[in-house]
């Protein structure tokens, strides 16, 4: 389960970077909303999966609430999930 979460964290981070640094500029600079629609949907699904898996692991791995909270909050800014993957999931 931790390996699945690790992969999800990395892919969710990549989707956030693509959304913020590729799709949104394409929409607002070049007036092309196509990429925001598709990358945004993928990012939304991955973000939800990340939070659900974090919650499952919170109970399964008996994480303390502080660790769980940091892991969940780190999914909001770009590059946050890469920090989590390195700090908390490196040895998985």
Main beta sheet = none
In total, how many domains does the architecture comprise? 1
Helix content: over 70%
Order of helices and strands: HHHH
The overall average pLDDT, rounded, is: 93
Total strands: the figure is 0
| CA gyration radius, whole angstroms | 14 Å
Structural class: mainly alpha
Strand content: under 5%
Low-confidence stretches at least 5 residues in length (pLDDT < 50)?
Answer: none
Shape: elongated
Terminal Cα span:
10 Å
Helix segment tally = 4
Quick summary:
The protein is mainly α. The chain has helices spanning 2-30, 34-60, 65-73, 80-88.
Describe this structure in words.
- It comes from Flavobacterium micromati.
- The protein has helices at 2-30, 34-60, 65-73, 80-88.
- By secondary structure, the chain is mostly helical.
- The chain has one domain (2-87).
- Helix 1 runs antiparallel to helix 2 (34-60), helix 1 (2-30) runs antiparallel to helix 4 (80-88) and helix 2 runs antiparallel to helix 3 (65-73).
- The radius of gyration is 14 Å and the shape is elongated.
- The model has no long low-confidence stretch (mean pLDDT 93).
């Amino acid at each position: 389960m931790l390996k699945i979460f690790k992969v999800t964290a990395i892919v969710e981070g990549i989707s956030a970077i693509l959304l913020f640094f590729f799709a949104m500029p394409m929409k607002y600079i070049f007036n092309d909303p196509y990429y925001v629609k598709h990358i945004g949907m993928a990012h939304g699904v991955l973000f939800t999966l990340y939070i659900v898996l974090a919650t499952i692991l919170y109970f399964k791995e008996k994480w303390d609430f502080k660790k769980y909270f940091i892991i969940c909050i780190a999914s909001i800014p770009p590059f946050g999930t890469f920090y989590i993957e390195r700090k908390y999931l490196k040895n998985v």
